[in-house]
Amino acid sequence: MADYDLSHLSFLVVDDNQHMLSIIREILRAFGVTDVHDARDAAEGFERFRLAPMDILIVDYLMEPLDGLDFIRLIRTAGDSPNPQVPIILLTAYTEQYRVISARDAGATEILCKPISANGLYSRIQTIIQHPRAFIKSNRYTGPDRRRQEKEDYKGKRRRDGD
User: Fold this and answer.
1) Domain extents for the chain?
2) How many CA within 13 A on the CB side of residue 163?
3) CB-based contacts of 83: which residues, under 8 Å, 6+ apart?
4) pLDDT tens for residues 38-56?
5) How far apart are CA 46 and CA 21, in angstroms?
6) Fold entry, domain 10-144
7) Residues of 66-97 as b/e, b for ≥16 C-beta within 10 angstroms?
């Protein structure tokens, strides 16, 4: 595993659980991150992001009144979103396939299952750095390219204008 200097990156953590905010903040600080912002709900998180764009967002799935998927859609599609292409890591304890697919389809860049670990979080950040994904904007989807791999033997329709 390559070590990255994360000290120049800014993070926004959006979670309605103060304990989880503290844990994530401390993990990021252990990685050398000095610019960590947090918000207790999606509306506050969007406002913080709008006023001071961040490099990577970490958001909880289950929040009220807007959940993590609503927040991701807001970041990806709102006219006043300063960076719809920002990488977003979604934290969730709900790993049923339909929820993971919903998160992917909302525009999550990476998904991290709870309980989180420092290694798991670092791995997602490392993937974002090492393998940035193309951004797709269409009538039905806005977010990182959901295709993770190119299959040389694939013969079906690609459904992307650039393919």
Assistant:
1) 10-144
2) 13
3) 49, 53, 75
4) 999 999 999 999 999 899 9
5) 16
6) Rossmann fold (3.40.50)
7) bbbbbbbbbbbeeeebeebbbbbbbbbeeeee
